[in-house]
Amino acid sequence: MITFLELLVNGISVGAVYALIALGFVVIFKATEVVNFAHASLLLAGGFVVAKLHPSIGFWAALAAGIGGAALVGALIEFLIIRRANVAGHSVLAIVTIGVDILLVTELTRQIGTDVLALGDPWGDRVLHLGPISIAETRVVALAVAALLITAFLLAFKYTGWGVAMRATAEDAETAALMGIRLGRVSLGAWAVAGALAAVAALFLCVFPTPGLDRGTTFAAMKAFPAAILGGLDSTTGALVGGLIVGVTEAMMSGYQNELAFLGRGIGDVAPFLVMTVILLIRPAGLFGTRELSRV
Amino acid sequence: MNATDGLAVRDLTVHYGPVRALGGVSLDVPPGAVVAVLGGNGAGKSTLLRAISGTLRFQRGGISAGEISFEGERLSGAAPAAVVARGVVQVPEGRRIFSRMTVEENLRAGALGARRGARPRMIPHGAAEARERVLALFPVLAERARQRAGLLSGGEQQMLAIGRALMARPRLLLLDEPTLGLAPLMAARIADTIKEINAQGTSVLLVEQNAALALSLASHAYVLEVGEVALHGPAAGLAESDEVRRRYLGIGAAEVAAGTPGERPALSRWSA
Asked: In what order do the strands lie in the sheet with B73-74?
C-alpha cells in the first residue's frame, strides 16, 4: 500500500511535468495547426541553458535565462520558418519541424557529449517523509510548480485578451483576422509560451532522482507526445489529463515491473505509447479532442 | 465626390490563382451612406469584401491591379488588423461566430482589433461604450451573455456577428449577406438594425442577394456580374430599371410564370 501511494504521488508529479510539455504542444497546435515535432528540442535547449549558466550566475538566474532562451528558440522557429514557409498544408510544416528537431538535437547533443550536466537546483536529493511515505523533495516542488503554472495558464487562456485572441484564432483564423486579431502575434506568442513551459519541464525532468541533463533527456520529453495525443491534440484539458495518465501509468508499470515481468523489462518506458494506442482505438480524436488525427 | 472621403475602390482586379474573380471594379461609399452590391452567386461580391478587408490570402487570392482607399488612406495591401484599426470592419458571410466561445467572449474578440492604431494605450473606456451600444441594439445578447454562441438561433447569431463587428467601433461596416437563411421576419429586423446603425453615423456597404431588401436600405447600388460592375446608380433608379426588376427582383419572372402558382417570385431566388 505504501509503495502504491509513493508510486501514485511520483506518477502524478511526473505526470504534471508531462502535462506542462503537452500543454505547450497543444497551444501550438491550436494557434497554428502545426504538430510541433521540435518540442523535445525546445525542452533540451532550455535545460542546456540552465545547465551551462548556473555555475556562473546562480541557479535562479540561470533558470530565468533557460526559460527565456527556450521561449526565444520557440519564437525564432515560428518567425524564421513557420511564418515564412509558403506551403499548402500544415502536414508539410509538421515535417519541417522534424527537420528543425533533428538539427537542434544533433547540435545540442554534440555540445553535451557524454556528460551528464547537473542543473544546480537547490533541492538536491532531500527526501520528505510524510508519515510512512517517502517522496523526493524535487517531486513535491515539481507538482506544486506545475500545478501553479497550469492554473495560471488556464486562467489567462480563459480571461485575458491574449486567451480570447488565441481561442478565436484556434476556432476560425480567417474570422479572427477580420476582427483585427493579429495572427502572427498569436502564433509567435504560442510558440514562445510553449518554449517557456518546456524549459520548466526540462528542469523537473533532470533533477533528482534523474542524474541530470544528458542526451537521453529528449527521450523523456518524448513521453509528452502520447500525453498530448491521447488527450486530444486540440484540448488543453486533454493535455492535463493525458499528462497525468501517462505519468501515473509509467510510474506504476515501472514500480511493479517485477510483478509484470512476463511483459519484459523496461515496460514503464513503453507504457505511455501502449496507453495511447489503446485510447486511440476507442476514441480516435483522443479523450477530449474534437478533431480527428487524420488531418495531421 | 472628393477622393479623400469614405471608401473608394478604383479599377480593382482580383485573381485566385489563374482565375479572375473581379475585373476593373470601381465603387464608392460616401461617408454616412448605405451602398448595396447586388449580384448572383459567383459574381464576386464576397471577393470584393475580402479585398477590402485584406483577407484574400486565406483563399489564396490577391489584388492584381487597382487600389482601395478609405478616408484618403490606402487600404489595398494592408493587413486585416490594420484595416480594422482604420475603422473598416466586416461581418462575414455565414456569420462565422466563434461557436465554442460564449456570447460575451465573442464580443470581447470583436473589441481586440480596435485597441491599437494611432493610440498606443488601451482605451477600455471606448470599449465599454461600444459594448453598451451593441447591447442596446441587441438586448438579447445581454440575456445570453454567458451562453455558448453555438447555441443561439440563426437570427441571434447574425445579431451577434453584427454586434461583434460593432465592438471595433467601425466607421464603415461591411455586411456580407446578413439576411441569408433567415426567416422573413428576422430579415426585416436585421434590416431595421442596419438602418439604425447607419443613423448612428456608421456607413454601410451591404452585399445582398435579397435585392428588394438591399435596394430599400441603400441610397446607391452596384450590380456585379461575372466580376464586373454591370449597372450602378441611385437605388431608387435601379429598382425601377427593367433589367434589375427582371433579374434580381423577379418581377418579370412573375408575369411569365403567372400560370404556374408554384413558381412565385420569391422562389426565383436560389441560395444553393
From this structure: B19-29, B7-16, B61-70, B73-74
Distance from CA of A86 to the nearest CA of B (A): 11
Q: Which residue of A has its CA nearest to B57?
A: A174
Instruction: Nearest chain A residue to B110 by CA: give it.
Output: A179
Range of the domain at A183: 2-218
pLDDT at A260 over 80: no
Cell reading at A158? 480563459
Q: Rounded CA gap, A247 and A147, in Å? A: 14
Would you kindly state where each structural domain of chain B is located, as residue ranges? 7-240, 244-272
Check B96 against A168: CB less than 8 A apart.
no
Of B92, B101, B105, which has the smallest distance from its Cβ to A178's Cβ?
Answer: B92
pTM: 0.85
pLDDT digits 0-9 by tens, A116-162 = 888 888 888 888 888 888 889 999 999 999 999 999 999 999 999 99
Question: Of how many residues is chain B composed?
Answer: 272
Window 26-85 of B: residues touching A by CB (8 A cutoff) are 53-55, 58, 79-81, 83-85
Region B255-269 average pLDDT: 47
Across the range B144-172, mean pLDDT stands at 93
Using the predicted structure, report yes or no on whether residue B121 has a pLDDT greater than 80: no
Tens-place pLDDT, residues A16-41: 999 999 999 999 998 888 889 999 99
Number of Cβ pairs < 8 A linking chain A and chain B: 72
Q: Please state which architecture CATH assigns to domain B7-240.
A: 3-Layer(aba) Sandwich (3.40)
SS3 of B182-233: the string is CCHHHHHHHHHHHHHHHHCCCEEEEEECCHHHHHHHCCEEEEEECCEEEEEE
For chain A, the domain total comes to 1
| Residue A86: closest C-alpha in chain B | B60
